[in-house]
Amino acid sequence: MNVPAGVDPYVPGHGETTYSVQHYDLDLSYRVDGNHLDGEAVLHCVARDSLTSFSVDLHALRPTKVSVEGTRASRFRHSGDKLTIRPAHPVEDGQEFEVRIKYAGNPKPVPSKILGAAGWEELLDGVIVASQPHGAPSWFPCNDHPGDKATYSITVTVPSDYHVAVTGEHVTSHRSARSTTWYYEQKQPMATYLASVQIGHYDVATIDAEVPLTRVTPRPADEAGYEVAFGDQPKMLAYFSSVFGAYPFASYTCVITDDDLEIPLESQALSTFGRNFMVDDWEAIRLVAHELSHQWFGNAVTLGAWKDIWLHEGFACYAEWLWSQESGRDSAQERAAEHHARLAKLDQRLLLGDPGPDLMFDDRVYKRGALTLHALRAEVGDDAFFETLRSWVAAHSGGTVDTAMFVEHASATCGRDLTDLFGQWLFHTDLPALPVL
């Protein structure tokens, strides 16, 4: 289990280092009409210090009962987005302990002046959860730090005419007269921001692919629209598995909401798009590839601190270019040249290796990150490059990483010191020359 390295300055006030969560049991009941959530969360934790008190992250929802190791907490206080808990008995360093929290209320996104709002969001008739990077506390109490990955069991009860898609494997559903309870398990470690619930009036189908691929589309199903934008996902899965290594999860789900979305939403083993992406256009198709590639780079292998966001977005952007070439469109070199020329016209003050919270999702992080990988490929050749990617995923799947680890890994795999190459792209602001394969 990975231990958070500290409260992340990019997302201040989230996460704690004095304990780590190993598993979340979430039991949720949601009324779509009225946007009301009742929840019980059980956090299976390990203390990383001696604890007389500790806190979890929880936004806008009201905790009603808290216990630690089966005993009611001597005190708990919810202030701002922190639920501070004082257990009846101190928790020893290294001790495994269980925290049970009952809570309720009207969930809403977590605001941020710099990062915007993220988390639980009502649609016209349903819900999406988009938690990157700070929205997880909008729907469950958690240690909200990307380095604190855990497994999950999630139960969601909703009115029976709604479908529920969750980041995990669907285990079972139980229907009563008016409601249905959906049970999912995520057995692979997952960062809190990658946990997600999607609720809506959906049609569901399974598509033949490398792994079970589930299509979740609004009613009535738009078969033609789905096919032109998402029809190549089985081929994408096969191709990315060949260049990045085996798909890291048991299945993949693609949700298309009836609402338009500005951007797709990333979560573990599940991606969410708006109906507006169901078009035969490269700008839509590239994002289908982008979100799928995040299952390797971002979800299986996850940054431990947000300053290393290029390890997610640069890799996913380069996957777009690889798929462009594989599918008979522009080559990766042509895509690199196009975006290098665009970057050359922009302000160069962004530091890719530490862009700051206000620029962590700037398009320059995506494109310069992709060009960094293209530079590595040009330097070491295809065999060493793709072996670097495959072995990186194999070595760190389920864990957390940082930039220094990737530089060391690439150097070791390729048999040469690549510090200077990465330094030019990551830790200097001037744009290096276009790499050429």
What's this entry about, in short?
The chain has 437 residues and is of the alpha+beta class. The chain has nine helices and 22 strands. Helices cover 26% and strands 31% of the residues.
How is this structure best described in words?
It contains 9 helices and 22 strands. With 437 residues, the protein is of the alpha+beta class. The chain has 3 domains: 199 residues, Immunoglobulin-like, CATH 2.60.40; 95 residues, Zincin-like; 125 residues, Neutral Protease Domain 2 (Neutral Protease, domain 2, Orthogonal Bundle), CATH 1.10.390.10. The strands form 6 sheets. An 8-stranded mixed β-sheet has the order 5-4-8-2-1-11-14-13, with no helix packed on it. Helix 2 packs across helix 3 and helix 4 packs across helix 5. The longest helix has 18 residues. The radius of gyration is 22 Å and the shape is globular. 47% of the residues are buried. The N terminus is likely disordered.
